Amino acid sequence: MKIDLTDTTSSKINAALMDARRAGGAGAAGMVLTLVIVTDEGSAYDALKAANDASREHPSRTLAVIKRAGRSPRARAETRLDAEILVGSDAGSGETVVLRMHGELAAHAQSVVLPLLLPDAPVVVWWPENSPAHPAQDPLGSIAQRRITDAVTAESPVGQLAQRAQSYTPGDTDLAWTRITGWRSMLAAALDQRPAKVTAAVVEGESYNPSVELLGLWLTTRLHVPVERVVTGGPGITSVTLRTKDGDITLDRPDGLMGTLSMPGAPDRQVALKRRETSELIAEELRRLDPDDIYATSVRTPVERLREPANAETAAADKAARAAKAVEAATAAPARVTVKVAAEAPAEAAAKAPAKAPAKAAAKKTATGVAKKAPAKRATKRSGT
What we know:
By secondary structure, the protein is an alpha/beta fold. The chain has helices at residues 10-23, 41-54, 73-77, 109-113, 157-166, 175-178, 181-193, 210-223, 278-285, 293-299, 312-332, 335-344, 346-384; strands at 2-5, 33-39, 60-68, 80-87, 95-102, 123-126, 146-149, 172-174, 198-206, 227-232, 237-244, 247-252, 258-262, 269-272. The protein has an eight-stranded mixed β-sheet, sandwiched between helices. The chain has a six-stranded mixed β-sheet with strand order 10-9-11-12-13-14, with helices on one face. Strand 11 and strand 12 form a beta hairpin. It starts with a strand and ends with a helix.
């Protein structure tokens, strides 16, 4: 069922929802939370489709807030609220209300949303794009228990992580963190199956993907080891390697569908690591409404903690230069080779030294005796003459 209301109010929208529920034969609401989506016309269709799919697991009232302030002064001066109500199969397992706010009303969206919230039910606010710098201080974010953003839609996705760390408030989360749940689960399970001391880690993935950075920061905070960040062509995260003394534990997913888990002393195993749809990510976030402390610790870790490898060409040139210097040094200093040879046979040198010393002493003694006898012989000859 679809109901269109033009130039309406919050009370009229509530009355229309009650009439639609009675017409459908549902006496009670049967919904567990209110999901507020703050979006624009361009992203409204995809966001509503994801929310409707997620509502099959979490029946909820979905309020899509679309602000249309207007471009001209006349349009901005006109204040109007238009609503589109979807009930039944068109709204998944809940109710959907699309609120289009025109003019100055766009700056006071919370005054329209508050009367439409389900009583005694938690509130979740989701910004598919253009999330505020401080979600908890936003007028709509301040009324929610959970606030969901998506750093991948920002102009600088990796730089957005620094903004999320600065403005973090318990209850904040980001879909970039939700996307790595499968990776975190598989890596934790691998270490449970084969306990080993991890000495270093390598995370490979496409550039400008905040999920790759968050996975590296999570490994840094949990394992307390240096993590290297390698840029690949994607899609998304392509590989994670944990270095241990017994060998490398590698989780590789080059195609975005299936992953291969390799561990020392065990055969390779295929694991499901498909890149999930937005509806699955939203459904996962709606399963828990308490603060995510692990996400808070990871996002607050500076991205500069991740090391970037040197350029391959630069590394090869440095290696060749070091080899050339070593050859040049060996050619220019041949005396080092002589000393090395002498040092390799100390016993032979020591055996030759005592033999030479007595010979020299005997020769010296003989020469001294001849020198002493010669003057006596000459003196005898003179006296006889």
